[in-house]
Design brief:
0% strand; mainly alpha; extended; 165 residues
Length: 165
Amino acid sequence: MYKLAKHIFIIFLLLSFGSKIFGQVPRPVYRRPPNYQQRVIIRQQGGINKVEEIREQYISKRLNLSADESQRFWPIFRRYEDAMKAIRVKKRLNNSKSQANGTEQIQKELFYESELVNTRKYYTDEFLKILPPEKVSEIFKSEREFTDELIKQLTERSEPVKPNP
C-alpha cells in the first residue's frame, strides 16, 4: 500500500509540475534586420554595408592610393556617392507610377539628369585637387566596371540552373 501511494504521489507531481520541468526550451528572439532609416543612420555613423565595402576595396586596389591620398580621397568619395544616390532617389520617385505623366515630369527628369552631371563635374574637380588626372579617370572607369560585374553576378545568381539534356 505504501509503494502504491508513493507511485501515485510521483505521478501527481509529474502531472502538476512536469510541464515546467520538461517544458519546451525557450526559442531565441528573432531580430529583424534594420530598416532603411536605421541603415541610413548606421551609414551616417560611419558604418557601411558589404557591397559598399567591397566597392571601396575594388576601387582602392585599382587606384593604388598612397596613405596620404587614401586619407584625403575616401571622405570626398563617400560624399560624392551620397550626393549621387540622393539625386537618383529623387529621379526614381519622379518616374514612379504615382507621379502624373506630362510636361512637369519630363522637366524634372531633365533637371535630375543635369544635377547628376553637375555633381559629377563638381566632384571631379575635388578629386583633381588630391589625385592626378589618370587616377581620377580610373575612379569612374573602376566604378563602372564594378557596377557591371555586380549586375552580371546578380543576374547569374537569379537565373535558374537548367538541367543538361
